[in-house]
Write a structure and sequence with these properties.
The complex is a heterodimer of chains A (122) and B (110).
Chain A lengths: L2 E5 L3 E2 L5 E8 L6 E8 L6 E7 L2 E5 L7 E6 L4 E6 L8 E10 L15 E5 L2
Parallel strand pairs in A: 2-10
Antiparallel strand pairs in A: 1-3, 3-8, 4-5, 4-9, 5-6, 7-8, 9-10
Chain B lengths: L8 E4 L5 E6 L11 E6 L6 E4 L13 E6 L2 E6 L8 E8 L5 E3 L3 E5 L1
Parallel strand pairs in B: 1-9
Antiparallel strand pairs in B: 2-6, 3-4, 3-7, 5-6, 7-8, 7-9
Classes of the chains: A mainly beta (122), B mainly beta (110).
């Protein structure tokens, strides 16, 4: 049973870089696609992108320029970085599995981590 | 990317059936049978309820079903129960090989 756990800074100042880590346990990170999803307080879900170590990351075209996903197979972790953070980036950041590799399309987002709240404020 | 639309809220009485719609376009919902639905209780993590339009993951009640017609996908909950009161989000694959969520629908059980 794959389990995911996010970790993040909690508070980031505007214009700084926001970094979130997702640690995967229960299986090799190489066997799945991995995705990031965020949810501003009181609002809906926003898909950020997905990554697999054998493929280039795919991003929400509305967010692409400031967002970077990466993966470290040796530590079974994957990462999200958001540069030039702004108040609008305040959200709960979730990591989730996008299904087994390889497939043509991600069938689902499951399971999810518990989420980590990142607040962008001075 | 283009947005999906969902009703902001729906309601029903215990035992009734309700349907939540998710309308997209020929660039997403209409092109692929790759719509999923997520249930989220306040302050909790979203839970996968339906994938590939109409498939239920193990452990999800068969009171939940999904369907699609043209550019609109639907989630139907039959035999409504108080525990079904939650927010529901649809998600679709797009032609750009990206994914998009709907804005969410708040289900109230009267």
């Amino acid at each position: 049973q794959v389990q995911l756990q996010e970790s993040g800074p909690g508070l980031v100042k505007p214009s700084e870089t926001l970094s979130v880590t997702c640690t995967v346990s229960g299986d090799s990170i190489s066997n799945y696609y991995w995705t990031w999803i965020r949810q501003p307080p009181g609002k809906g879900l926003e898909w950020i992108g997905y990554v697999h170590y054998r493929q280039s990351a795919i991003y929400n075209p509305s967010l692409r320029s400031r967002f970077t996903m990466s993966i470290d197979t040796s530590r079974n972790q994957f990462f999200l970085k958001v540069t030039s953070a702004a108040a609008a980036d305040t959200a709960i950041y979730y990591c989730a599995s996008g299904g087994p590799y390889p497939v043509a399309y991600l069938p689902w987002f499951d399971p999810w981590g518990q989420g980590t709240l990142v607040t962008v404020s001075s | 990317q283009a947005a999906l639309t969902q009703p902001a809220s729906v309601s029903g009485s215990p035992g009734q059936s309700i349907t939540i719609s998710c309308t997209g376009s020929s660039s997403d919902v209409g092109s692929y049978d790759l719509v999923s639905w997520y249930q989220q209780y306040p302050g909790k993590v979203p839970k996968l309820m339906i994938y590939d339009v109409n498939k239920r993951p193990s452990g999800v009640s068969n009171r939940f079903s999904g369907s699609k017609s043209g550019n609109t996908a639907s989630l139907t909950i039959s035999g409504l129960q108080a525990e079904d009161e939650a927010d529901y989000y649809c998600c679709s694959h797009t032609r750009s090989y990206t994914y998009v969520f709907g804005p969410g629908t708040k289900l109230t059980v009267l």
